[in-house]
């Protein structure tokens, strides 16, 4: 029986906590800082995810054996190395890559160089800073519109610009590099070829040597119906992705997943944890748009409910050399999740709205994202609740989630009504 600590506070972390709490090997489950939902399946702990010293104290006092890191930030800040370099912590399994491995998400340039070094299909690119800015016009002119400009560093999901007009692209590039449009994150900018196709996400869990492929998923990033308007963290997701059949996933494995794991080994990059392959399907050819070094949110809310084997058991194998022998069973059921958000999100929105009706929902699993318990269940973020349903087909799963969405109310509740309809 083991004690587990999950870092994070969103729907992804509630889904992890929900799944791990069902494991027969789970003793105590802690979530820092968590939300109102995680506290129902475990115990919330008031620690900030980048406060490594407080995490250390907590882990030692509470005899935690597995630490699962939800978001990328602590990973990019080196939480794995912090554990490895500490005699008291180094035997604790921290699920996540080293600081260097986390650069696959923390630096677009690092990720691009990695992909080119290991022949992993991706868009052609060039990286620019103040030093070579004068060469950028020539490169932009060699591409056809639209132009994709990416801040190199973490920019809270906002650092990618897709611009049709070349003059505008040149102007924005200058703003990014010279005027700090995205702060330090855009002092280096990756310009890349625009790829046309359908996006999907594939996930793997690795101990650094072997890997297991998790179910595929597709998320819906824009706030508006028909995928219009501002980018959000994700307004809904489905799993599996209908066109990503066994043959397609085998292609992804052969051309992308295997070369990535081999590349990490070859480059001597310590990596145990999740790899999120953000892919685009260009006329049947999968290409990597981005790597993330964590699970997706809300993809986790449709992937974990489809895993029928003991997930904690699998995680245990990462630290004791038995990962490759452990089971990962995936149900044939289809999952859909619909995100209820606060009106105004992803721009300004209000919090502290009373949430009613969650007790009436019986067809869906409710994963809390931005919620808190304060004299009743209240909203505490832009994305509030993810309503996940499992069914024998996508239509039934979506119908169940939409029925549940109607049963829940809070002031200025908003959700997209077209999740999954394009498929
Ligand atoms: P990223 O943060 O790299 O995932 O980019 C954010 C979003 O921009 C992606 O989910 C895509 O929708 C879009 N995008 C990024 N790179 C490209 C590209 N090379 N071609 C087309 N769309 C892209
Ligand atoms: N849903 C996309 C992400 O987690 O980055």
- Return the CATH architecture of the domain at 2-95: 3-Layer(aba) Sandwich
- Report the end-to-end length measured between terminal Cα atoms: 42 Å
How many β-strand stretches? 23
Shape: globular
Instruction: Assess the beta-strand content as a share of residues.
Output: 25-35%
What low-confidence regions span 5 or more consecutive residues with pLDDT below 50? none
Q: Total helix count? A: 13
Characterize the biggest β-sheet: 6 strands, antiparallel
Q: Predict the CATH topology of the domain at 2-95.
A: Rossmann fold
Q: Which ions and ligands are bound to the chains?
A: adenosine monophosphate, glycine
Rounded to an integer in angstroms, the radius of gyration calculated over CA atoms is: 21 Å
Q: Could you say which structural class the secondary elements and strand pairing correspond to?
A: alpha+beta
The CATH top-level class label of the domain at 2-95: Alpha Beta
Mean pLDDT: 96
Indicate the percent of residues in helices. Answer: 25-40%
Report on the structure:
By secondary structure, the protein is of the alpha+beta class. Among the domains are: about 1-95, Rossmann fold; about 125-190, Dna Ligase, domain 1, CATH 3.30.1490. The chain has 13 helices and 23 strands. Strands 12, 15, 18, 19, 22 and 23 form a six-stranded antiparallel β-sheet that branches. Strands 3-2-1-4-5 form a five-stranded parallel β-sheet, with helices on both faces. A hairpin with an 8-residue loop joins strand 7 and strand 8. Glycine binds next to loops.
């Amino acid at each position: 029986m083991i004690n587990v600590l999950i870092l994070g506070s969103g729907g992804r972390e509630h889904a992890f906590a929900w799944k791990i709490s069902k494991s027969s090997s789970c003793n105590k489950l802690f979530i820092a800082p968590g939300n109102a939902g995680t506290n129902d399946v475990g115990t919330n702990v008031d620690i900030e995810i980048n406060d490594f010293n407080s995490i250390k104290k907590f882990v030692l006092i509470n005899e935690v054996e597995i630490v699962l890191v939800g978001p990328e930030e602590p990973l990019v800040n080196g939480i794995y190395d912090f554990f490895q370099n500490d005699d008291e912590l180094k035997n604790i399994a921290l699920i996540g890559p080293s600081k260097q491995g986390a650069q696959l998400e923390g630096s677009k340039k690092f990720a691009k160089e990695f992909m080119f070094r290991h022949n992993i299909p991706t868009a052609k690119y060039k990286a620019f800073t103040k030093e070579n800015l004068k060469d950028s016009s020539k490169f932009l002119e060699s591409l056809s519109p639209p132009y994709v400009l990416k801040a190199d560093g973490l920019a809270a999901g906002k650092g990618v610009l897709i611009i049709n007009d070349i003059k505008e692209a040149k102007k924005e590039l200058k703003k990014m590099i010279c005027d700090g449009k995205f702060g330090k994150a855009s002092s280096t900018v990756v310009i890349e070829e625009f790829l046309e196709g359908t996006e999907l996400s594939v996930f793997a869990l690795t101990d650094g040597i072997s890997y297991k492929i998790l179910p595929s998923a597709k998320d819906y990033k824009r706030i508006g119906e028909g995928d219009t308007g501002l980018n959000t963290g994700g307004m809904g997701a489905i799993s599996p992705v209908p066109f990503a059949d066994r043959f397609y996933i085998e292609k992804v494995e052969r051309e992308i997943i295997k070369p990535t794991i081999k590349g990490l080994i070859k480059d001597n990059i310590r990596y145990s944890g999740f790899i999120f392959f953000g892919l685009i399907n260009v006329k049947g050819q999968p290409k990597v748009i981005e790597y993330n070094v964590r699970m997706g949110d809300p993809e986790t809310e449709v992937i974990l409910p489809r895993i029928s084997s003991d997930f904690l058991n699998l995680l245990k194998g990462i630290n004791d050399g038995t990962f490759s022998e452990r089971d990962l069973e995936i149900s044939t059921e289809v999952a859909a999740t619909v995100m209820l958000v606060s009106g105004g999100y992803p721009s300004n929105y209000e919090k502290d709205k009373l949430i009613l009706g969650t007790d009436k929902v019986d067809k869906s699993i409710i994963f809390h994202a931005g919620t808190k318990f304060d004299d009743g269940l209240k909203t505490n973020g832009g994305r509030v609740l993810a309503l996940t349903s499992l069914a024998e087909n996508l239509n039934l799963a979506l119908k169940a989630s939409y029925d549940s969405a109607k049963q829940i109310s809070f002031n200025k509740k908003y959700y997209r009504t077209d999740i999954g309809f394009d498929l």
